Amino acid sequence: MCNIVIKETNRKANEVYSKWNISNPEKPQKIWKPLTEEEFDGYLGILITAGVRHSSSEDVKELWRMDAYPLYRATMAINRFWAITRFLRFDNANTRPQRLESDKAAAITELWLLLNNNLRAHYVPSECLTVDEQLFPYRGRTRFTQYMPAKPAKYGIKIWWVCDSLNSYPLTGQIYTGKSPKEQSDGVKKKRTPANFFADFRETFSNAHNREPYEESKDVSEF
């Protein structure tokens, strides 16, 4: 999974720098230092540490102060952190428009499928499975952000999970994106429900159950 992020991040950075160099031949040419696996691990470590230390609301500059937690400065320079964040990508943006025609979550679908495969590959579930929904709090711009007023966060990304009822281990998840652009243009009225999502597991695990009721949500295409 990390290899995909590293490859696409380097691709995006090289494309941006190449365009800038062509447009500014009289200025010193910019050269992107390739992101490596070791450096990406350090980048993830910074994000995780910032979360553990409840620093998500702090200005990034504050984390690199001389009197701040030393891990950030020891891992990489702040300018490098900003550069990686700027170019961070999870897919090939050049082919994304075609994939968006049938998949609103095209920018992260490849990683999401790999995550699901890893979840199933490393755990043997019991016969008791359940389907439940999660609203991951998020107010960024996506084509599938949901508005659910009954939830504490209200706005976010809705995910249906198949989990082991005994310990809540997630076996697979499906991001709810509503109708695809093609379905909308064709006027397709196909309702996506947890029951449909659970179809792949029903034959293998007969002792599974759904939790009712499932809350209706208002689809917010973009805001």
From TrEMBL:
PANTHER family reported for this sequence: DUAL SPECIFICITY PHOSPHATASE 26, PIGGYBAC TRANSPOSABLE ELEMENT-DERIVED PROTEIN 4
Protein name: PiggyBac transposable element-derived protein domain-containing protein
A Pfam family of this chain: DDE_Tnp_1_7
Domain PiggyBac transposable element-derived protein: 5-202
InterPro entries per the UniProt record, alphabetical: PGBD
Domain of life: Eukaryota
